[in-house]
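Ops channel
N.P.: pipeline sanity check, posting one input/output pair.
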């Protein structure tokens, strides 16, 4: 997964394919890109996030945002536009592993060039708001599971008779231990564990001073993730707006993702002494943080904006329920974040005994 997504010059995120559909592309009949993310659907997503971020800035006194994996730069564009309109002059930092996307971001965000900094590595110290939309799902997972004789296995890829195929071997001790702790042994069950995302979350603790981290992605808590019925895991591929489950198809030309185990992310954060400040569905977060008011305003100023896109953000059948928002933080436990004011599901992050 790491090679097909990130191998220099060849990987999906390292080479020059279109990847994300932009707003103009997915509203026209011409299909381009492989998938659409929330910021690419409508500016409302960034406008509502800006309201939540503003609440944090009021507490901190200085508006700074660090975005991981900024894609086409659309979320940064919408956040900066909304914050400027609210009279908040934010400084924006971006960490992006894809050189191709970084170039697209620089072009899109040229009006704010004096306020945007691309970082080549993690900061040593940062105070402010951190955001990562659909980034955890793009981090390479390990495929793990239980063999028919209930041995913990790790699934790898081999080249045989001129094609890629799977090969299982006993799981490395860290993966076997994680698997055993997260689910009962079920013969023939395959799933994913994302140790890279867990250590990425733990690393945040080393550089975050006061601030809040908003992780937005599709995924579930542990009890749902490792549910007996989900016995083939969550690995998915996206190419030209089609989703399928064959990662050997068009290596380097299609996106490969896995859903996020939010319990694992919250546990990694707590172990690293970060606070878990909230966990809600995307629909609930956006409604709590002012989606309805923002929609009314948008309809007055830009009546052509698609209500269909806004509905997609909150519909249970689309992104509203599958996508979640997890807030982690430090030094702000007394701040009741507006996005989590109703419907907080933090209690679901730890499995019921
Ligand atoms: C699915 S795209 C999402 C893009 C954008 N956030 C959006 O919502 O439209 C995943 C992004 O994460 C970036 N990425 C993946 N792993 C990363 C990491 N460890 N640090 C920073 N960016 C990363 C990719 O290059 C890409 O820009």
């Amino acid at each position: 997964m790491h090679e097909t997504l990130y191998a220099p010059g060849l990987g999906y995120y390292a080479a020059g394919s279109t990847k994300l559909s932009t707003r103009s592309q997915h509203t026209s009949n011409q299909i381009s890109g492989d998938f659409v993310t929330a910021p690419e659907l409508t500016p409302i997503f960034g406008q509502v996030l800006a309201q939540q971020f503003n609440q944090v800035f009021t507490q901190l006194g200085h508006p700074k945002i660090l975005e991981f994996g900024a894609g086409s730069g659309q979320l940064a564009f919408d956040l900066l536009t909304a914050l400027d309109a609210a009279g908040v002059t934010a400084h924006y930092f971006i960490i992006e592993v894809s050189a191709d996307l970084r170039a697209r971001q620089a072009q899109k965000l040229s009006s704010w060039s004096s306020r945007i900094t691309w970082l080549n590595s993690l900061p040593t110290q940062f105070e402010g708001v951190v955001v990562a939309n659909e980034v955890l799902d793009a981090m390479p997972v390990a495929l793990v599971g239980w063999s028919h004789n209930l041995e913990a296995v790790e699934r790898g890829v081999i080249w045989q008779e001129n094609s890629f195929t799977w090969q299982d071997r006993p799981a490395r001790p860290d993966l076997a231990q994680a698997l055993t702790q997260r689910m009962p042994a079920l013969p023939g069950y395959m799933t994913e564990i994302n140790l890279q995302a867990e250590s990425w979350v733990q690393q945040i603790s080393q550089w975050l001073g006061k601030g809040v981290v908003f992780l937005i992605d599709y995924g579930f808590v542990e009890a749902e993730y490792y549910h007996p019925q989900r016995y083939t895991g969550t690995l998915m591929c996206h190419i030209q707006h089609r989703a399928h489950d064959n990662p050997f198809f068009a290596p380097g030309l299609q996106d490969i993702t896995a859903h996020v185990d939010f319990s694992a992310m919250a546990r990694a954060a707590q172990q690293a002494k970060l606070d878990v400040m909230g966990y809600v569905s995307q629909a609930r977060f956006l409604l709590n943080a002012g989606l309805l008011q923002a929609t009314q305003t948008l309809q007055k100023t830009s009546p052509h904006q698609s209500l269909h896109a806004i509905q997609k953000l909150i519909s249970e059948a689309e992104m509203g329920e599958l996508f979640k928002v997890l807030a982690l933080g430090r030094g702000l436990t007394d701040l009741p974040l507006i996005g989590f004011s109703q419907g907080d599901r933090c209690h679901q992050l730890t499995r019921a005994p």
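N.P.: looks fine end to end. The first helix runs from residue 2 to 6.
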